[in-house]
Amino acid sequence: MDLSEYNSNNFMNCHIDSAVPEVCKTEPCVLGVDEAGRGPVLGPMVYGICYCPVSRNEDLKVLGAADSKTLTEAQREKLFQSIHENNDYIGWSIEVISPTFISNCMYKRPKVSLNEVSHNSAITLIRRAMTAGANITQVFVDTVGPPEKYQAKLQEIFPTLDITVSKKADALYPSQGVSSVPGCVVCARVARDSALAAWQFPEGIEGGTWGSGYPGDAITKNFLQRTLDPVFGFPSLVRFSWSTAESILQTKGVPVTWAEEEEADKEKKNTPSVLQFFARQAGGGRMNGSEENGDGGRRGAAAAQRHFFFSDRCLQPLQCL
Amino acid sequence: MSSVVANIDLSSESLKSITSDASHMQYIPCHIEFDGEANLNKYFTPFVQKKLDESHEKCLTSSFRGYPLCGKQMKVPDNFVGVVMKESKSVEPENANVSNGEASDVVEPTIKNLKGVCAFDQFTYWNWDRQPGHADKYQQALDWLELSLEIHGDLPVKTEQ
Lengths: 321, 161
Prior knowledge:
Chain A is an alpha/beta fold. Helix content of chain A is about 40%, strand content about 15%.
């Protein structure tokens, strides 16, 4: 798989597609969607689709695509090669979603969740295949989030397609002869492995080893500690929004506060306690908002306040000596 | 809030040349509690991308600690120059009248010693996931420049018709 386009700009997303086999343009096709690299704190997440004519689905099974998650990296490579060699009836398409893109989405205002990123990628991939001429009629998807909601969402976007969303589709369906989902996992995983193996740090650093890339891996944690810059944090290989990364950054990085997060914290502190409304006034009597009692003595003599023109614009007076 | 009094030293020779490269100066939408070197060329500049926004204006995108940034190159207002100040240790105020349990009405001002170290007339302004625009506090703060001229500047000479 040629990932040179992604490798040269690995902080941005990248689509890679096979050509649409001629037979897929005419015959009804079944399409599977799956992903690789959702859980790790390092590297891209890859979404992949794989499709072939419904009539040729058994052939895909023979290739050995079933139960692809237990394969070794070498076995997956070999399997992808077979898929590639059979490009007269098998088509595939992937999106490499960069770690920077994932972090940016989760730190957007408002936040775009990883589930939403996943959904959007799958939807785009299906659309691309159809736009390129593939005659997709059936889709099998492993769920992201609640399966019923996801199925309804996809069915609304693709009303002409027969869509099945379930948990662990690739283990569930081989008996029914649908192996296109395992095929797409192979494509996705091969892409992720390849992208990681070829990773060039735009920061110009030597990363060293990073283990499996999963938050629980000690080698991965060591990589995070080792490559941390106190101001900028981690290199762009890292998903900043992962709690493992966040906590290391908080402990070892210089403190950085973002205005909206600060305001949210301040609001929590400034919200008056309900008990305040039941407190006795300084001059006796209960809080009843009557005119004689004024504002109930909650505030002392108001300090001279600057006009809100200045506070709105974060302007403070400065006297020069 | 206590008032701030500053000693500002703008005598340095380094202020005589004004940096016009906007990529050297970044106005970022967060508060970094740190003074010191930051390797922009390594960790920031490689990720700055040029884009066209919805109204087809040139804008920039980047990322800081995973936070998406939208930016624009800006000039310092006309007839002004930007100065980077370095602060040396400020004198902390002493709070009076603490012994009798009452807060003092008069709070001693904080004294800051600021020295200008470099001058610039262009910089890159960054917002957190929002296009830079007139609603930004920075842009609104510039209103004061015009207003202060009206309030404190010389009266225009009126000529009777």
